[in-house]
Amino acid sequence: MTQDAWLPLLVVLSSLLTGIFIFFLGEQRRRTRSALNLAGAIGKLVLIAVMLWGVLHEHHYETRLPLLPGYDFVLRADALAMLFVSLSAGLWLFTTIYAIGYLEGSPHRSRFFGFFSLCVTATVGLALAGDLVTFVLFYEMLTLSTYPLIVHRGTGEAMHAGGVYLKYTLTGGALLLLGVVWLNHVAGSVEFAQGGILAPARQADRAVLLGIFALLIGGLGVKAALVPLHGWLPVAMVAPAPVSALLHAVAVVKAGAFGIVRTVYDVFGVELAARLGVLDPLAWLAGATIVYGSLRALAQDDLKRRLAYSTVSQVSYVMLGAGIFGPVATIGGVAHLVHQGLMKITLFFCAGNVAETLGIHRISQMDGVGRRLPWTMAAFTLTAFGMMGVPPLAGFISKWYLGLGALRAGQYWVLGVLAASSLLNAAYFLPIVYRVWFLPPKGSWQTGKTHRYFETYPTLLLPALATGLLALAAGLFASAPFSPLEWAKLIADREYR
Amino acid sequence: MNASWISAGPLLVASIGLPLLLALALSLRRLRAFAHAAAPWSALPGLALTAAPEASVDLPWLLLGMRLELDAISRPFLLFTALLWLIAGHYARFYLARRPLRRFTAFFLATLSGNMGVILAQDVASFYLFFSLLTFAAYGLIVHEGGEEARHAGRIYLILMVIGEVLLSIAFMLAVEAADALKLDALASAIGASGDRSVIVALLLSGFGIKAGALSVHMWLPLAHPVAPTPASAVLSGVIIKAGVLGWLRFLPLGSATLPQWGNWCMAAGLGAAFYGAGVGLAQRNPKTVLAYSSISQMGSITVLVGLGLAAPSAWPLVLDAILIYAAHHALAKGALFLGVGVCQRAGEHRYRVFAGLLLPALALAGAPFTSGALAKHALKEMTLFAPSPWPETLAVALPLSAAATALLLARFLFLCWRQPPGVGDRALRALEFCWGLGLLSVALVTGLMFPDASASMMSRYLHPAGLWADLWPLMSGSFVAGLFWHRAVRSKRRAFLAIPPGDLLAPLEWLALRLWTGSKALSETALTHWWRSLAYWSRFGRAHAGRLAEGAVRWEFFMQRVSVASILFLLLLCLFVLAV
After folding, report:
1. How do residues B144-173 score in pLDDT, each as one tens digit?
2. Chain B residues closer than 8 Å to A418 by CB
3. C-beta of residue A100 within 8 angstroms of C-beta of residue A459
4. How confident is the model at residue B1 (pLDDT cuts 50, 70, 90)?
5. Which of A436, B69, B314, B429 lies at 20 to 30 Å from B192 by C-alpha?
6. Cβ within 8 Å, pair A278-B577
7. Cα separation of B300 and B288, whole Å?
8. Share of chain A above pLDDT 70, in %
């Protein structure tokens, strides 16, 4: 095997081994643990940078190990995989730094960081998975490794949330598995291919193909929080802020969205999907989710809950992009995979900062917080505008391409959904922004994590600022090489070639 | 890349970037003092740029590929915009000397940057970027003083603006899809040829109309202008609302497509606004509110010109000139009037001097001979000949009448300024007067110098008494009526017999919205509850879910958390998929 064959495996191992080591570390070995975490995250980023360069130049990275008779364990780096892998690895680094500050002094940190690493391993693994069996393997691993993170605090509410989460996702996983088995039976192969696994089996019975599609989308839609399968997400926001951040930005929700994108483009192939007529229902479902999530967000007073419903809404942009036939919409949807991650993780970091520093969880208590936490709230404001789709933030780029793609496909109703979503986003983000900056503080705040020079722990502040700036940069420098948009264009180019 | 890029390009970038950098510098303690000192000068690069023979910059890696260029439309816009910002910036420094300045300065600089960018942007993404920056940063200027009134004004402003932004974003997408290009020059003609032309034009007219204070979406102007600090009102009313006009000029298929219907609508709305603004303005009690209504009225005249351009594309180059003259004239005169109000409030015993100063922009706005107003009104009058029938005849009667109405409105404004408590002269008065003096000087000179041909023809017209009389009589009749009222009002000391709350249409609209809201809540509590109950009864096991709709929604969420429900729904979804296909 050459080094090309080892790179994808190394990317997965870099966090798997870190996680396993951390489990065996004593609770008090804080420095060793942090160093290990950071070394793993940075090492992974370096490996990914090498692979990004290679994939851009049509280099082929594939790890293939025998798994079961007739089935291989395949990790392959194509353009779409690299997009998701870079996002996960980049945000893992920031979230690790954030979590180190967030959990300082709290119990069970080895357990937390161990599962945290496993969670990222699973995400990266399912991103790189070259066939459906490997994908399902990592998909289930993600479910199991996230559960301990959600129930980390061990309170009744957390245990309840964990239970709901498990019931939902395990059912979803079972459906997915069922779909994969059926697919394997029909197509005779489970290996992702440009143009679709099912391309050779396109003469198969229409009803069978529809059934497979519905099973796959249904199974993945649970994690992607498509309405009406979204019930677990707002409950799971009781998890610690770094977990919510990772859950909403990359790990779980995005894994589902990514899986749906894979299903449409590399399992069915977008042309077969369009011919089957399944793209329109997918787009309708996504559109309904976008509006429903925003409407529900409007009524929440708990900041993290509002953000959770906002995720339900925003992640569906990715599915909307997949549900509209044509390269431009694909670009918008795929780029939003990254854009939404950058914006939402910043928002959750900021919500965590407010909760940890001032003990504030409710929006109605946030009057004048901008005076006490100006930088945190600056990042929050910036990304809130991004969510509304205001240029030059990343959200604008996604909406722009989705809108243009919809027009090109003749789907005018999508513009209505986008407009409604922008208005609703403005309606639930602008009041927060207004409260924070323009109203005088009400009463006194709790004193939580403070610092001599910074407004809060630098480990909490700096990740939020960094991801906020990345969200700005992803929009402002959208046309620069290696921007998420340019990479999404590459993916669309290769898909519609 | 030619030689001129080297000199003008950086200036182009600086005119947008410098204010933004200074706004950022305000947040760093070490640079704060410097940023405060430099802030009033930050419109200077923009002003200097207007002297450059040509300037364009391509930044292909920015946004969707940014292009900035100084062209025939942006040069005059840039000149009067940068000039007013420069004057207002210095004015603000003395006006707000004793108040918390940092937040105001930051918003002021950000708004300035957006305004410069809107003028210079030549591709749709950067235009939208700077337009949004202008919109959202100006909010900070409006609510700066705090208090319930400012909050209300800010809320109305923001609601209207967000709706406007969304309408525009749809229009932009449709236009880009039609043109398959992002550059503005390609868009306008493609919109004219597009199948969705009516939709796009409607979206553009309403979206930019909100910013320009067009009739029926003008409500934010009379609320926002009086509550903002005076230098901010000056730029709001002088140049920020002009961004809406600029948007029309940039995107509407003016000169390339004939759209008689839309032209008629625009002209009718413009003429309506000209009289409506003047009429409602007369019933106001705050001089700044009167000026805001005067802006609605004056923007109505510009809307008439835009309508003319839509109806008669062959005359477009001339109509464009008329719009530019009108915009420059109104920006400078209205800016000077607003700044004058601030000076007047602090004038103390120097009131007579200040009052004499206020007369100049007031006369200019009313179209007195030899002023920029006469230039603008004449340009407008000449253009009416190109309009399709029956507009030339209608406008020939209506325009002098609207000039008379403006004269009356400004007399009301002067009266209200006179009636205001004189205030105490303070130390800043000298400095304020100096800045304002510069504003008056530019009212007197700049528009004439910008358009030498038009001013030469105006002068030659005044060689005949008839020409002079044509411009004088509306002013005189307006002043005569005002004189009658003035006499009575001063003597009787009574309040005006009729008062319309600022925002006119807003009051009934807000009442209606409130009624609808409470109505729908009542409905949801009665009718929908019944409906919900019967549904629950029907499904037997769901009886526990009966209740108020809001509660129902919450329970619905809990309901959805049950896995059995999720799996049933999944099966339903599966069926739907099969049915849909």
Report:
1. 988 889 999 999 999 999 999 999 999 999
2. 169-170
3. yes
4. very low
5. B69
6. yes
7. 18
8. 99
Cα(A187)–Cα(A262) distance, integer angstroms: 16
Choose the closest CB to B63 out of A230, A391, A419.
A391
**Cα of A199 to nearest chain B Cα, Å:** 20
Complex confidence, ipTM: 0.93
Which H or E element spans position A417? helix A413-438
Report the pLDDT value the prediction gives residue B389, as an integer from 0 to 100.
Answer: 84
Give the three-class secondary structure for A76.
strand
The C-alpha atoms of residue B371 and residue B13 are separated, in whole angstroms, by: 34
Sign of CA dihedral B470, B472, B474, B477: negative
Band the pLDDT of B542: cuts 50, 70, 90.
Answer: very low
How far does A279 lie from chain B, in Å, by closest CA? Answer: 10
What value, to the nearest 5°, has the Cα angle with vertex B159 and ends B156 and B163?
140
Q: How far is CA A228 from CA A225, A355, B573, in A?
A: 8, 30, 9
Judge contact between A301 and A435, C-beta under 8 A: no
* Chain A nearest CA to B10, separation (Å): 19
Which ranges of A104-155 does DSSP label H, i.e. alpha helix?
109-128, 132-150
Residues of chain B neighbouring A167 (CB-CB closer than 8 A): 563
CA-to-CA distance for B490 and B497, rounded, in angstroms?
14
Looking at every residue in chain B, the average pLDDT score rounds to 86
B162 and A399: CB-CB below 8 Å? no
pLDDT of residue B543: 40
β-strand partners of A73: A65
* DSSP-based helix, strand, coil % in chain B, nearest 5: 80, 0, 20
**pLDDT of A263 higher than 80:** yes
Q: How far is B380 from chain A (nearest CA, A)?
A: 36
Mutation target among A301, A434, A435, A482 for the B interface, most CBs of B within 10 A? A434
Q: What is the pLDDT of residue B275?
A: 94
Name the DSSP letter for residue A7.
H
Are A426 and B573 an interchain contact pair (Cβ–Cβ within 8 Å)? no
Q: Decide: residue A66, CB within 10 A, 0-12 exposed, 13-18 middle, 19+ buried.
A: exposed
The token pair that represents A224 in the structure block = 């992607």
Contacts of B42 by beta carbon, 8 Å cutoff, 6+ apart: B18, B19, B22, B89, B109, B112
Separation of alpha carbons A266 and A47, rounded Å: 25
Distance CA B429, CA A433 (A): 36
Count how many residues are written for chain B.
581
- Contact predicate A274/A135, CB 8 Å: no
| Mean pLDDT, residues B488-506 | 66
Q: β-strands B55-59, A71-77: how paired?
A: unpaired
Place B563 in a pLDDT band, splitting at 50, 70 and 90.
low
Query: Which of B61, B155, B565, B576 is the best residue to mutate to test the A interface, defined by the most A CB atoms within 10 Å of its own CB?
Result: B61
The whole-number pLDDT of residue B5 equals 45
Residue pair B437/B504 in contact by the 8 Å Cβ criterion: no
pLDDT, tens only, B66-106: 999 999 999 999 999 999 999 999 999 888 876 668 889 99
Nearest to A99 by CA among A245, A304, A307: A245
Indicate if the pLDDT at residue B4 is higher than 60.
Answer: no
> Are residues B174 and A407, on separate chains, in Cβ contact within 8 Å?
yes
